[in-house]
Every structure is written in structure tokens, then in C-alpha cells.
Design brief:
175 residues; mainly alpha
């Protein structure tokens, strides 16, 4: 059996590792979003240069309006596609974070409760009724924490579900 300071150090170490994992997850998702933004910006810039070149050679005003309309439509489609991709990354990240936090809450709560249980076992409590009451309290607390974690995780998952999910890649058009 580990001593009390060692148990607390282990819980702190696991909490630090979890924080590092959460930070890494955040960095990875931020990088994905930035990559999408850069790709969209680069594409829009290249299109605008090509559009400017094409417009410079057009003499007919009707043709210029048509070209500008096509360019505006193409630009809007690219922006919306980028926004959809970013929304998908965000939804996936929220789901990952929710699952991760739920797992950490469950794991850390169990470890803390076990450490408390070990602490009480080490105390010179001679009354078995008192020991049983403490054990029942710890078991009730453990069950409550597990239920709270489960409900929180389910609520987080429900919150991250996007109405008219963007996962299909389809966009709604209004006419």
C-alpha cells in the first residue's frame, strides 16, 4: 500500500498528464483550423488575381458583370465550405474534449475516493459502526460522482450535436 503523500503525488502527476494531453488536443485542433483558413485565403487570393486578369481583358460590360457574379458565387462557396470544415473540426474537438473530461472526472474521482478510503482505514477507529458509516458514505459519494460524470458527459454530447449536422457536407440553400 502506498503512503498518503505518494498517493497524492500520483493523483497530481496524473492530473498534470491529463492537462498536457488536453493542451495537445487543443493545439492540434487549432492547427487544423488555421490550415483550413490559410487554404481558403490562398485559394481566394489566387482566384481574385485570376479574376482581375480576366476582367482587364473584357470590353463588354455584360460579360464583366457575369464574370464578377461567377467570381462572387465561387468565392462564397469556398468561404462556406471552409466554414463548414471549421465547424466540423470544432464539433469533433468538442466531442473529444467532452469525452476526455468525462474520463478524467471518473478516473480522478475514483482515485481521490480510494485515497480517502485508505486514509480512513489507517485511522484507529475501533467502532465498526463508524467504519461502516464511513464506507457507506464513500460508496454513496462514488456512485454520485459516477452518475454526475455520466450525466455531464451526456449533456455535453447533446450540446455539441449540431442541428442539421454539417457532417454530411450539405449546405442549405434558400431561394
Amino acid at each position: 500500500m502506498a503512503t498518503k503523500p505518494e498517493q497524492l503525488n500520483e493523483v497530481q502527476k496524473k492530473s498534470l498528464e491529463a492537462a498536457v494531453q488536453l493542451a495537445q488536443l487543443s493545439i492540434e485542433n487549432t492547427q487544423r483550423v488555421i490550415e483550413v483558413q490559410v487554404a481558403v485565403a490562398k485559394s481566394l487570393f489566387e482566384d481574385s488575381v485570376n479574376n482581375a486578369k480576366a476582367l482587364s481583358g473584357i470590353k463588354d460590360p455584360q460579360e464583366a458583370v457575369q464574370l464578377r457574379t461567377r467570381f462572387a458565387q465561387s468565392s462564397a462557396e469556398k468561404v462556406f465550405a471552409g466554414a463548414r470544415e471549421i465547424a466540423e473540426i470544432a464539433a469533433k474537438a468538442q466531442s473529444q474534449v467532452g469525452k476526455f473530461v468525462g474520463e478524467q472526472l471518473t478516473s480522478n474521482s475514483k482515485e481521490v475516493l480510494e485515497a480517502i478510503q485508505q486514509m480512513f482505514k489507517g485511522l484507529p477507529i475501533g467502532d465498526q459502526t463508524t467504519m461502516n458509516a464511513i464506507q457507506n458514505t464513500l460508496n454513496t459519494t462514488r456512485t454520485a460522482v459516477e452518475q454526475l460524470t455520466r450525466v455531464s458527459s451526456e449533456a455535453f454530447q447533446a450540446f455539441t450535436q449540431v442541428p442539421g449536422s454539417t457532417a454530411t457536407g450539405k449546405s442549405r440553400t434558400t431561394k
